[in-house]
Amino acid sequence: MVSPISIWRSLMFGGFSPQEWGRGSVLHRLVGWGQSWIQASVLWPHFEALGTALVAIIFIAAPFTSTTMLGIFMLLCGAFWALLTFADQPGKGLTPIHVLVFAYWCISAIAVGFSPVKMAAASGLAKLTANLCLFLLAARLLQNKQWLNRLVTVVLLVGLLVGSYGLRQQVDGVEQLATWNDPTSTLAQATRVYSFLGNPNLLAAYLVPMTGLSLSALVVWRRWWPKLLGATMVIVNLLCLFFTQSRGGWLAVLALGATFLALCYFWWLPQLPKFWQRWSLPLAIAVAVILGGGALIAVEPIRLRAMSIFAGREDSSNNFRINVWEGVKAMIRARPIIGIGPGNEAFNQIYPYYMRPRFTALSAYSIYLEILVETGVVGFTCMLWLLAVTLGKGVELVKRCRQTLAPEGIWIMGALAAIIGLLVHGMVDTVWYRPPVSTLWWLLVAIVASQWASAQARLEASKEENEDKPLLAS
């Protein structure tokens, strides 16, 4: 009889070996065909640097440029990844995350075939493909610890610019481009900053990964000046996120903070004295509760925005989302298995047939409902599987890195905390579907995938070395 533990281990790809999978895969045998070419290539020694520069350009441009331009650069990432892959050794860089990402892409492609609006869904598939091209190249390049640190530093510097401009909007005032506050609330005329992104909720979603990675940077960077820069990034990101007045963003950063705190406790637990091993976490939780409760009592904007979460339909924003969700649920019931196909264009063409009167929307205002609409129960199950494997492998990597106090473990902790934060924010907003945030989302997943691939490569090399020792001895 198969035990539940063995089933779970299989679902989490326990014992997955990239080398064995590569040897058994017909498609993966194409990998390595370019090895003879790279020996004569002048550019090959600089390919990782060139690829990292290409990825960095995307994150530098994401908050400021058009979707079309970013899409072109992402597709270039796909071409670059293909060159690197065909020159690699079979199995190198392959992870369970890659397998599930490919599975989700295949489901999305099938959903296009069954979509009632095939051309619109094909456009959405193209956007998804572009994002996955970015993921593939980033996951390949970030196996190099040097490029991991450099790329994350570039991303954080761009985030510092975006957050600083948001703080300037708070100080100088800025025109409110839409009715983002409940007109009946005492905060109806309050300023909500949006920096270069044009929407406070989108800015909040952008700042969540920046907060997670800047917390990691504060720990990883060793010298005082880099640490001071990391601390500045954390403060700017948190302050700017606060001034967005995004309730989803606030909940996200609370979830992020709790996750990062728990991972830090796990990371440093063996090094703590016995007293702090027992009491550090309860004391940290108590301090967090006291500070949170004090903020709710003393800071009026926090109190009013927090109370509005529980106001139900009495809050105009809540009422709008509830009505949109009702229409979206009807869409899901109409096509529950494989959905209507990926992308906002497909959504915009189908939603008017199911919407409540006067409640037009460009998305489902929930990543979970959006995935169910686009790819049905099949795609939603695959995405949950992908998330579970990503988080599970991430925690596994933190355990491994803790044994040697490798700094990559801290980056993974920040990535995992940011992933949790975006998943919380995604409950009430479609935060994955705008390039400034979607690129960061796939970077977070790529960080986990890249470090799993790097750790697995070291493990495979160690196994081969141990297997060769008896032969050498004889």
TrEMBL record:
NCBIfam families (alphabetical): 2A73
Domain O-antigen ligase-related: 234-383
Domain of life: Bacteria
Membrane-crossing residue ranges in chain numbering: 42-62, 68-87, 94-114, 120-139, 151-167, 203-221, 228-244, 250-269, 281-299, 365-388, 409-428, 440-459
Protein name: Slr1515 protein
Biological process per Gene Ontology, one example term: polysaccharide biosynthetic process
InterPro entries: Inorganic_carbon_transpt, O-antigen_ligase-rel_domated, WaaL-like
Subcellular location: Membrane
Record has Cell cycle as a keyword: no
GO molecular function terms noted in the UniProt entry: glycosyltransferase activity
Lineage: Bacteria, Bacillati, Cyanobacteriota, Cyanophyceae, Synechococcales
Keywords linked to the UniProt accession: Membrane, Transmembrane, Transmembrane helix
Species, as recorded: Synechocystis sp. (strain ATCC 27184 / PCC 6803 / Kazusa)
Gene Ontology annotations for the cellular component aspect, listed alphabetically: plasma membrane
Membrane topology: Multi-pass membrane protein
